[in-house]
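Box 4.2: Ligand-aware structure prediction
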Amino acid sequence: MATAHKPAGIGTPLSRVDGIAKVTGEARYAAEHFAEGVLYGVIVSSAITTGRIAAIDDAAARAVPGVVEVMTHANRPETSSRDAPYQDQVAPPGSPFKPLHDDRIIFAMQPVALVLADTFEAARYAASLVRLDYEAAPHNTDFAVSLGEAFLPSKPRDNYVPPKARGDAEQAYADAPHKVSGEYHLATEHHNPMEMHATTVIWEGDGKITVYDKTQGPQNVQAYLAGIFGFKAADVRVLNPYVGGAFGSGLRPQYQVHLATLAAKMLERSVKVVMTRQQMFTHVHRPEAVQNIRIAADADGKLVSIINNAITSTSRYENNMENVVPWALIGYASPNASGDYKIAPRDTHTSGDMRAPGAATGVTLFEIAMDELAYEAGVDPLVFRETNDSDIDAMNGKPFSSKELRKAYRAGAEAFGWADRSAAPRSMRDGSELVGWGVATGIWDAQFSKTSASAKLSANGHLEVASAASDIGTGTYTVMTQLAAETLGLAPDQISARLGDSALPTAPVEGGSWMAVSVGYAVQLACREVGEKLLKAAGKVDGAPLGKAGIDDVEFVGGTIRLREDPSRSVTFVDAMRAADLPSIEAQATANEGPLGIGGMVSQMRKSRHTHSAIFAEVKIDEELGVIRVTRIVNAVAAGRIINPKTARSQIVGGVVMGIGMALHEETFMDNRLGRFMNHNYAEYHVPVNADVGSIDVIFVDEHEPELPLGIKGVGEIGIVGTAAAIANAIFHATGRRVRSLPITIDKLLDE
Ligand code: MOS
């Protein structure tokens, strides 16, 4: 089956199909759904970090006109008290937080009450009147202190890849002529999607609920709510047709969906709960990290030893782990390498996945050390990386399914003008500003996850494709539309894509950059089946213009099936369906094991599958004031076949912008006396704004990927990986000052 004419198929820069709905406001987010007689729930947050609630006085809150209930652990309805139902699809091992479960407080600003009223204003005012007495217990939120308790859990997280040592890294390090040893640090970061975590629960009666939730996985939330509250899964329908960004914060069900459902069950009414921006800083966050790196090279600038050790923060009650360490051992061809990883518990909410979890930390910090060693060895930092690039997965000894990183280095260097760089620090300037050019490498997984999709062709020739996938702004609607267009030769306006509904065919959470390839392939399989049924139906058309043609003998173009050998012999979809007396043609398919046995655990794969990038950064720094501007970024990406150059570019640009935040701005400060994140607002937690972002040039190099369906790798995360290192390295080149702690705020550039 092939299509000669591809109006919107793979490779077309189709504008996102949900774009108009978004800019006109027709797209509704979780808090924007109407529910008859809805109650507004406002969350009261704990004033202590650890301890217990000793007393609750809700009299003043209840006296506010319009207040219907003040729900706390003391009066809530029955829920499961076991851990298992709270362990959602992506929960790390441990004992998950159970909102309003009992009097225990285990992290700062933990929800302790939900005030429900007829109006939001009444609920918010009443929430300010709820009085709680606490018995505080000692806490530790200081990462530096928690390092003393760091450990490697005996039961690791599902996707954890243990670092595998080779050779004798200690001896090789000791013997080498060029070496770098350093402690590198990444601050805690919080996801800051535009849309706050929000839920509207519609009480349908008869024990049924419809839940609009901000989530990256409607079926994950469905199973969570059904398990905890004792609903039948079929009676809980979770919808997330539009999500205003998430970056990982919506992978696990957040506490507002639990509270809204708890209140709906208690009062048998519809309930809406929206976190405040401050409360967005009370749950998941990128773990704080420290990485101890020792690397060494021989006289020719070849790596001879990598010792890559890291510790990241988690909570006291769950063991969140990341793959921080393995990347450097996989990508670089040092004959000796070792890695060590531990987690350090502190009294916070559990840390979790944030865009490229593990790699955004571990690759970025390692790439700063690589730059240091390049200088120490007297080799150009780009040449140093090219010299040490490994053609096979150096940690596992497996071939890569594809790795066109060298092409990315070359294409990026050319676009950036790297050849014009003068090597010495402080050797380039522009007026009163120091100029610096830096480079770094990025690496991320190219994953695939089992996904189902359906396709339904109606008698009028309109095609609907559907899956319980999510589109968190990444372009899933558009990718589904394009794969359907590619397979059945239809124009985008003849296709509707549906997603974000737990009632649709099974899909995983949107994460790990696996959604485009996974749901794209599922849509293609379902559409292929529709195509086969269409061909069969075409046989019933008078005179059988297609003869005995098989599926490989025909192509689908503009709503017709035609012979590839003789395009004048064709049947329209509509005529075929009419002749066969079919009001519609439907099919459902599951993309699981591909033709080459894809899917399954990373450790079981025959080949190592990754995306790669080469990032080049230019900074200009005011010499007197230390103000840093990132004036140019070139990010050259090798990510297989690009389904949509426009939406893919958007993903890389978004990742680069987050990389600028990681390099210069984003840091959640902890007040260790109170045990609270202090800068829990947009005034004090800086995400890059337009003024912080200069030119961003995205290049996709040609890469043939034979293992993944259609040769597609994901691009949602690779854009952030390494970007902050390229900037940090440019800052060194501009100033001669090496900063090993991100973000590089101005104070770190000023003399003491
Ligand atoms: Mo991503 S951190 O897998 O949403």
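In the box above, the bound molecule is dioxothiomolybdenum(VI) ion. DSSP finds 16 helices and 31 strands in the chain.
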